[in-house]
Amino acid sequence: MNTPAVFPAPAAPAAPGGADLGEYVRRHAAADLVVQPRMGMSDPEEMAAGVRAVAGARARTVATLTIDSYTRVGDESGARDALARQGRINGYPITVHGPERTAAVAAAAGDRPVQVRHGSAAPGPIFRTLVRAGLSASEGGPVSYCLPYGRVPLAESVAHWRDATERLAGECDALGRRAHLETFGGCMLGQLCPPSLLLALSVLESLFFVRHGVRSVSLSYAQQTHPVQDLEALAALRRLADRHLPGEIDRHLVLYTYMGVFPETRDGAELLNEHSAELAARAGVERLIVKTPAEAHRLPTVPENVRALRRAADAAARARTSSLLPRAHDTDHGAVLEEADALIGAVLELSDDIGTGLLRAFEQGLLDVPFCLHRDNRGATRTAVDPTGRLVWADPGALPLPRRTGPSAPRRVRAAELLGMLRYTADRYDSLGALHTRPRPLPRIRESLLTAS
Amino acid sequence: MRAQLSPTPTGRRILLSTVSSDAHTWNLVFLQLLLEELGHEVVNLGPCVPDDLLVETAAAEPFDALVISTVNGHGCLDGARLARALRADPRTAHLPAMIGGKLSTRGPDDTSYVRELAEAGFDAVCVDGAPETLLHSFLGALPPAAPVRALPSGTS
């Protein structure tokens, strides 16, 4: 299965937790969906216990260290202060704990890969620490970890990411490991971004990683509002990756369970989680980042995460043989493929350097994320949910969409409509969850409503 | 409820922002659309706005009101600090200001922070899930807009 010339075996045996993420996924994805939580605790012992539980779950798992919000913005002293004052913060402060302690935490994963998830527009210090801790896998991107969440200028993010990606790839190579980066571009703002733009950003960020030395990548896409539209998007993403990435680059697709406003009832949330696993299975996606039913109310516990991983793996296994959804490659995905390719092509024409192309494209509105308030995003585009539940362009702004796929006439989106669209999936799944025949449907709903308040 | 309100005030110039620690933006996107539909002009500063950037922006141009929306649960602390900075600067000491959203991490029953936010300098604090109603009365209670910024009649 492994062709040595294409996927060289690590020169040195991987340290525990340092397993090659791309290779692990490639080895198992034919038989099982690989599932992974978002999980970050500030205490190293607790983090290690979480990693151990994920690695021991009855599923093909990748373990996660999710970084806290201070470390994300490079505020190491803020992380130290908050830890000292409150005892805990909202993620694992990797630079505070340093490489040695992080290596000990990651060792709890045994032979499973460990990925560091962070959200930083300047990931250099995080990458440096994870490499010294014996790890090699992370995620993000110059656009996706800049535009949605902060005020860092896009040009600065591109420069930081260029430098950090080259160092990550180079340092891993020197140590006989292979760096892996996953794009976060398939998830802009979590919801209400039409699929073609998500695909374009995911492909462009993966190309950015590859041009800066990374040889193993994954391309993300976040579940949106309509399962068949999502299947079309994932079929197109696979073809776009094959079209644009050099043949020798290891790649797989990763789906995120819905990232927008989450259903509030347990049944609704569980149904949405199951549907995302079914979507992953029918799309042939190799890896899924799962959510838990606790998502709408608080950070999930370790047992809740493990249960969600197992349920997702089971739902995917069932859907491989039996599902009402078609398989992705059987869907008619020509329109989304054409639209995404037009966006990618427009950026590639602007410069031989992907980062420069991205900057110019945002400046000219050739890339423009709907409802994104960042100063370097033009903000002329708008999304709508059409009557069938698909995401469509209400206003494509200056995006270079092919004539046959764009909207007939741009229109405004009003405040009340936006509110409805933001809650579209949550409301739908809360209703579906209430209708779903389950052993004890009503008591469970009441219970979750009580704990929600 | 809506029928009891005074006619919609329009034509105000509003500075819309959140607090320094808050990266959420959908609340800001929604409020901008809502305020624009009500006929106001909005400058939206986006997520994670440092106190000094907000005070400088509010001082540099004429605004009729400041609207702060925050949902990360730190509004009670960050908002109070921001209001004190706003009131300490003579250029912004009298700018009408309101704050709303999910202002504490202790759940909807905790409103102990309202007094502190008001004492720190906010003219209105919105704690419930009906921002439209309070926004409406807040904007309706503003002093008359400066003549240079008044919209032509017939727009309300």
Layout of SSEs?
The complex is a heterodimer of chains A (about 450) and B (about 160).
Chain A: H1 21-28, E1 34-36, H2 44-56, E2 63-66, H3 69-72, H4 76-86, H5 94-107, E3 114-117, H6 124-132, E4 137-140, H7 154-174, E5 180-183, H8 195-211, E6 216-222, H9 227-244, E7 250-256, H10 266-283, E8 287-289, H11 302-321, H12 334-350, H13 354-364, E9 382-385, E10 391-395, H14 415-422, H15 424-435, H16 441-452
Parallel strand pairs in A: 1-8, 2-3, 3-4, 4-5, 5-6, 6-7, 7-8
Antiparallel strand pairs in A: 9-10
Helix pairs in contact in A: 2-5, 2-11, 5-6, 6-7, 8-9, 8-12, 9-10, 9-12, 10-11, 10-15, 12-13
Chain B: E1 13-17, H1 26-37, E2 41-44, H2 51-60, E3 65-70, H3 75-88, E4 97-101, H4 113-120, E5 124-126, H5 131-140
Parallel strand pairs in B: 1-2, 1-3, 3-4, 4-5
Characterise this structure.
Chain A is α/β, with parallel strands linked by helices and 453 residues long. Chain A contains 16 helices and 10 strands. In chain A, the strands form 2 sheets. An 8-stranded parallel β-sheet of chain A has the order 1-8-7-6-5-4-3-2. A two-stranded antiparallel ribbon of chain A has the order 9-10. In chain A, a hairpin with a 5-residue loop joins strand 9 (382-385) and strand 10 (391-395). In chain A, helix 8 (195-211) runs parallel beside helix 9, helix 9 (227-244) crosses helix 12 (334-350) and helix 12 (334-350) crosses helix 13. Chain B is built from 5 helices and 5 strands; from the N terminus they run βαβαβαβαβα. The radius of gyration of chain B is 15 Å and the shape is globular. The chains are: A alpha/beta (453), B alpha/beta (156). Chains A and B meet through helix 14 of A and helix 1 of B. Chain A: Keywords: Cobalamin, Cobalt, Isomerase.
